[in-house]
Amino acid sequence: QFFSSVHQKNITADSGQDNVTLPCRAPNNNSIVVVKYNRTDLGSEYVALYQDGYFVPDEQHPSYETRVDLQDEDMKDGDVSVILKNVKMNDTGTYKCHVAQREPNQERAMLKLLSSITLRVVDPPVLEQTQCRISRARRQRNVCWNRVTLLDSPVGRSLRVCLCR
């Protein structure tokens, strides 16, 4: 019997991040013949299609060419997660992972939806610089202070680090 519930996952990544993993796992050890990732807003073009041991580029959306790989090419323990490289703001969306496995007593393997991943890509943290001035009249040898704050705003996230010596 094939797993009937769809695993749902929300992921946030920074734009420009090297990689983000879109997780998906087949529930049993039957032979995996097709892995297909699509995004709900891309129409008939897909993010990745892996069939019979090879990636199929025929109808892959151009923005994903050379940017997706299986996390584990051997798909050990049913791991059919993909790695999305060079994350971009336009990668925001809902991704669907479909898998077809060769089942006993079944002529044809059918694609089944296993996972729905909502990826939210945000602007990376912005580093703000703050200056520190020390009056020489006070004869202080050194002053140290620091502050790290991660701020969420409607515009994006920013990281404030203050350090003065």
From TrEMBL:
Gene Ontology molecular function terms on file: signaling receptor binding
Main localization (coarse): membrane
Transmembrane segments: none
Annotated Gene3D superfamilies: Immunoglobulins (2.60.40.10)
BP GO annotations: regulation of cytokine production; T cell receptor signaling pathway
Compartment(s): Membrane
InterPro entries for the chain: Ig-like_dom (IPR007110), Ig-like_dom_sf (IPR036179), Ig-like_fold (IPR013783), Ig_V-set (IPR013106), IgSF_BTN/MOG (IPR050504)
Keyword Metal-binding: no
Domain Ig-like: 1-115
Keywords tagged on the record: Immunoglobulin domain, Membrane
Any single Pfam family the record assigns to this protein: V-set
PROSITE patterns according to UniProt: IG_LIKE (PS50835)
GO cellular component, one term: external side of plasma membrane
PANTHER family in the cross-refs: BUTYROPHILIN, ICOS LIGAND
Name used for this protein in its record: Ig-like domain-containing protein
